[in-house]
Amino acid sequence: MTQISPAPSGPPAVASRRWWTLTTVALAQLMVVLDSTVVNIALPSAQADLGFSDGDRQWVVTAYSLAFGSLLLLGGRLSDLMGRKRTFVIGLVGFALASALGGAAGSFGTLVAARALQGAFGALLAPTALAVLTTTFTVPKERARAFGVFGAIAGAGGALGLLLGGVLTENADWRWNLYINVVIAVVAVVGAVLFLHTVPRQGPRPRLDVPGTVLVSAALFSLVYGFSNAEAEGWGSPLTWGFLAAAGVLLVAFVVWQRRAEHALLPLSVVLDRNRGAAYLSVTIAGAGMFGIFLFVTYYLQTSLAYTPIQTGVSFLPMIGMLILAAQLSTNVFVPRFGPKVMVPFGMLLGAAGMLYLTRLGLDSTYARDVLPALMVLGFGMGSIMPASIQTATLGVDRGHAGVASAMVNTGQQVGGSIGTALLNTLAATAATGYVASHLPADARTAAEAAVHGYATAYSWGAGFFLLGAVLAVTLFRTKADTRARAEAAVARAGEAGDTGAADADADAGSPAPEPVVAH
Q1: What angle do CA 191, 161, 51 make, to 5 degrees?
Q2: Tens digits of per-residue pLDDT, 6-55?
Q3: Is the pLDDT of residue 222 over 80?
Q4: 41-50 burial, b for 16+ CB within 10 Å, e for fewer?
Q5: Which residues contact residue 356 at a Cβ distance below 8 angstroms, ignoring those fewer than 6 apart?
Q6: By CB neighbour count within 10 A (0-12 exposed, 13-18 middle, 19+ buried), where does 243 fall?
Q7: Which of 212, 285, 343, 403 is the most exposed place for a label (fewest CB within 10 A)?
Q8: How many Cα atoms are found within 13 Å in the side-chain-facing hemisphere of 406?
Q9: Distance in angstroms (rounded) separating the CA atoms of residues 456 and 428
Q10: Residue 96: partners with Cβ closer than 8 Å, 6 or more residues away
């Protein structure tokens, strides 16, 4: 069981400092999430400028996702060991330098190397940002507001990346899709220096679990690469199945090692708690569906409706607005009243409904009638899923494990995105090929109809992802009454024992625990 450390003595952070901390953390999270999509729109211009092939183009995206996905747990653990503020600033500075290198790249190799470095420093930065939030906001009402903002950014960042990428590519230069991170990072570093406080470590410094780090980093690398290769080479590729099989073996070995490791990288109690486990699964499934939305709606708007990159980005703004609205309503009103067992399945069902609505799209569809309603429903659904899941995933975790627990949120979203993109892309391509084969002789309109048919197939499967997520969430999340009863029982046992020894039951219950109110 995870032992909950009492908050260190000292004056609490004033409210204004906490909200400035949230602003700083939100900027860092926005920078990391933006980079999952902002570079995509710039790829054609970068390819023309640097002269790399279509086959090489995927590595500009894959290099980032491989480094980011495989190093997330290590990054989260380093934030626990080195201290939040130090790790946060290192991550920001490293990400900014890598972005500057990529923006100034004169060759394909330099650009790919810079993207890999971005991913590595992003893996350090993303879990640290969430861990700072977890250990800063402990008052339930403030925590709900803070996680509502953070969840909205996590859900909307990809769409904002599409908009920003289109604006920068059309009005400036593709290199500014990377340089923009330097501007954001400078502001965030100033905020970190001014508003993040360091809490002195109490007790001996734990050691890094090197074997566990190697096993899980290799496993996550193999998993992300396997799905990326499936997207590029297809499911018939031996390389795809070789890496996926290796990922499975390495993950089993990692779990076995964590059961016996003295300084486990990921204490299993963090993920085996029902509420947190359900939250991690929900983030993974929502990530798979979310990336599918961005990918295929972007394709449809640009290829079928002939939208420019800027028009495409603007088209996602109503979705972002609904996501932000839902995130605030969910965390401030609905989650406190109904709990994640109601709100997450509700969001999943909305996601499924939005995806099914998109299956109606055809070559003669219009944005206002056929795309906009679906995006608004999807936005409200994602705004109901993400904040509730992220808040639950880090609730009641020992302060010393906040970094690695936060890393699991990012890992779930990254792995979900990789799985969703690979599976849905393959299903769409197969459906399009089958459509052409059944409508010979094919002409230009047939090819366009085949593409839309492929997108519809992907939307149908995406709806299936969300429905699966709804079933799992209803099954796994504890009821609000059960969570409250467990928390009260833990407090009673702790009072009888005269100490906080029973507090780990509180952690298992997924209820708030005493945590410091300043960033570690």
Answers
A1: 115
A2: 444 344 445 567 888 888 888 888 888 887 777 877 777 888 889 887 66
A3: yes
A4: bbbebbbeeb
A5: 459, 460, 463
A6: buried
A7: 212
A8: 31
A9: 8
A10: 181, 182, 185, 186, 189
